[in-house]
Design a protein that fits this description.
The protein is mostly helical. It is built from one helix and two strands. It has one domain. Strands 1-2 form a two-stranded antiparallel ribbon. A hairpin with a 2-residue loop joins strand 1 and strand 2. The protein is rod-shaped and about 115 Å long.
């Protein structure tokens, strides 16, 4: 005859199954969480690189605008000098 150990109305088999289920659930959650964190870190790195590219583009555009403004001023001054020479 098989002797069963009873603890508060639960058999030893039920306790073992519950413990194994808990271990499976905890380990599955842990692995899933780590994968999610790795994916979030990867996406964050990609976003940071895109932001850096965008910021570089903004800086280059600002420099181009400054250069264009300077060239416009030089062209206006050159046109004034040409007009002054034509009048003379």
């Amino acid at each position: 005859m098989k002797r069963q150990v009873m603890t508060m109305g639960l058999s030893l088999d039920a306790i073992i199954v519950a413990i194994l289920s808990m271990i499976g659930t905890v380990s599955g959650s842990y692995i899933s969480n780590r994968k999610s964190q790795a994916l979030i870190a990867y996406r964050l790195e990609q976003l940071e690189s895109k932001v850096n590219l965008h910021n570089n583009l903004i800086e280059r555009t600002y420099k181009l605008e400054q250069t264009t403004t300077l060239q416009d001023e030089k062209l206006k001054e050159t046109n004034r000098r040409v007009e002054a020479l034509e009048r003379a």
